[in-house]
């Protein structure tokens, strides 16, 4: 079920009504769990079996891991959980990709092998709930935290509908304790949650789908070279679209949970105002970045095993992070580009530290004149430079293949002199105005949270802004476009 | 403090939004607009499931936009006692739709296929895109989408402003007069009050459109550009035979399951009709298609009762003429035993 659908409106009203009734807490949790399964099954009912399997296996394996003292048995149990979760992810998400690459490889060495292409449907949200359950079993293996007491609480932790399909990726300690005691949204939480839901839907429906999706799609689907202005407009449109789409989903998720009295972790913090690439990943898809840091980068050794190994670990983490987003080499290249950005930034930071200068972001160490050091214009230039490189990386993320990516990059940098005009004047105006407003907003609000902004704003201004968002939402009349991150 | 502040903001927003909705609806109603349905893939999917009705109870119509205007569904249903299942998709070739029905083993009904040559014969993927999207949506529709559609229809049947082509944010922005750069193609903006669409997907021109000469001239200009401005030459030789073969394969599949297919050519007028005949001469396309597929056809120019019907904007009939055309179509089909299954069923019941 999509947040931007009438079916969700009906569903959510029923859930709110049930949750506000005077039932025992256990009954309310059962209601939430059944509701969450309905939320998931409304997309494709059979895949609910996978969710059950993952939940039941990890609940019992997690408990056994925590209670088991024999190291070998513990390792065996962890392997069972890893194989179960990652095996499922590999089959559904990477099955076709692995087969295609295997066929290409054997054909390259002269073996004529052409198997029938299997028809594998990717279950919605599998990458998200796999990571949710995986972190639980790893935590139990390391005895970080205690096992969830009941299967009901664990099932609700995995399946709770606001975060189930596209995050934020929650950790057990962030959500499970909230299920242990009765929760009922206060009036403030309810109104705040409704505000966040409105904001999230505005970002998704108005900004991403209505204003930016069409120019981005046109440019990325173009079969010919384009004029630089069209190519840049399309790529900038996608930069904005993916932010509004995904941050919009996360905001809706946080808002929906808040309306029910629960709190989910923040997932985006004005990322296009980041002053460096490590700062970008502390602001973009925060829960995934933290997951990769805690369950991949640090276990690989992090920065504890010397400089060379640190760079290898960074690259590995970003490559796998890229692959997590999609079963295609273009996603791997996107991850690799971010890995390179982080490595270069780290290298420059290390050099500035050893030369006695303050360690700051990459561009400040590289291209900003010294007389501007510390000035806000310098920080703004840094943010723009980071945004530019992040935008270039999005070319690989959005392109369906490398030829599209190269064609687009050639067009963007004027390397192809036969580029054609594609976008209407209206599309160009929309893209440049929205992107400009997006960057300005991120820059101005970079140190604030939504809560801060609400707190600082006059109630009348806030009411009018809220109304404008809802009015544009009504006028946009788009109610069924899927969220981009559903495919991951 | 914070709680009351946010609550006050929420109440203010609610009042403003409700005021806007009421005002927006009244504004468009006062300008002559009425509630209509978005003719989108969800509405198509809603009609598609009706195609499985027994042959005696329904006829399926596929085509481009013309048959959506020219078939008056209430007249058809009142006269024949059959359901008219309208599966035509505007701006597309019905070939994709015909193939989908042919490949559906559960379909054995009757199909009237309307041919608009400029969309049917060119091998242009753009003319199949919307039909493919509608079919994909129908096949992959989720329970959530089905529920959303039902809520959507309930709202669309009451609120005039819930019409994406006319009143969505992008549609409103598209009305801003901005000159495009040379070489940029932009879809022309249709007159705002051109047509209404019903729940069963009949489309008809509005009175406000028919009474506005400027709008009619604007629309004829759009048809001139879209339908007559395509520079690609019509297919000939092997390319054309290939299209005929695809049609024949589909028709044979439906016939072999006990179904029926007939082709029709609905009226067009003025310079558009002349241009269509010039580019796609009847003897080289329509006649050859029927001969190749060995199927009957009903061309509007062959019948005294339909050959003089005038399309106000050259391409579609106004509702009063659609009623006449539908009566005539039923008579001709009756002569061709189209309703044999129904008549047999009635005879059996009477006996």
UniProtKB/TrEMBL annotation, chain A:
<keyword id="KW-1003">Cell membrane</keyword>
<dbReference type="GO" id="GO:0005886">
    <property type="term" value="C:plasma membrane"/>
</dbReference>
<keyword id="KW-0808">Transferase</keyword>
<dbReference type="InterPro" id="IPR024194">
    <property type="entry name" value="Ac/AlaTfrase_AlgI/DltB"/>
</dbReference>
<feature type="transmembrane region" description="Helical">
    <location>
        <begin position="190"/>
        <end position="212"/>
    </location>
</feature>
<keyword id="KW-0472">Membrane</keyword>
<dbReference type="GO" id="GO:0016746">
    <property type="term" value="F:acyltransferase activity"/>
</dbReference>
<feature type="transmembrane region" description="Helical">
    <location>
        <begin position="314"/>
        <end position="337"/>
    </location>
</feature>
<protein>
    <submittedName>
        <fullName>Acyltransferase</fullName>
    </submittedName>
</protein>
<dbReference type="InterPro" id="IPR051085">
    <property type="entry name" value="MB_O-acyltransferase"/>
</dbReference>
<keyword id="KW-0812">Transmembrane</keyword>
<keyword id="KW-0012">Acyltransferase</keyword>
<comment type="similarity">
    <text>Belongs to the membrane-bound acyltransferase family.</text>
</comment>
<feature type="transmembrane region" description="Helical">
    <location>
        <begin position="418"/>
        <end position="445"/>
    </location>
</feature>
<feature type="transmembrane region" description="Helical">
    <location>
        <begin position="7"/>
        <end position="25"/>
    </location>
</feature>
<feature type="transmembrane region" description="Helical">
    <location>
        <begin position="76"/>
        <end position="99"/>
    </location>
</feature>
<dbReference type="GO" id="GO:0042121">
    <property type="term" value="P:alginic acid biosynthetic process"/>
</dbReference>
<feature type="transmembrane region" description="Helical">
    <location>
        <begin position="37"/>
        <end position="64"/>
    </location>
</feature>
<dbReference type="InterPro" id="IPR028362">
    <property type="entry name" value="AlgI"/>
</dbReference>
<dbReference type="Pfam" id="PF03062">
    <property type="entry name" value="MBOAT"/>
</dbReference>
<dbReference type="InterPro" id="IPR004299">
    <property type="entry name" value="MBOAT_fam"/>
</dbReference>
<keyword id="KW-1133">Transmembrane helix</keyword>
From TrEMBL, chain B:
<protein>
    <submittedName>
        <fullName>Uncharacterized protein</fullName>
    </submittedName>
</protein>
<keyword id="KW-0812">Transmembrane</keyword>
<keyword id="KW-1133">Transmembrane helix</keyword>
<feature type="transmembrane region" description="Helical">
    <location>
        <begin position="6"/>
        <end position="27"/>
    </location>
</feature>
<keyword id="KW-0472">Membrane</keyword>
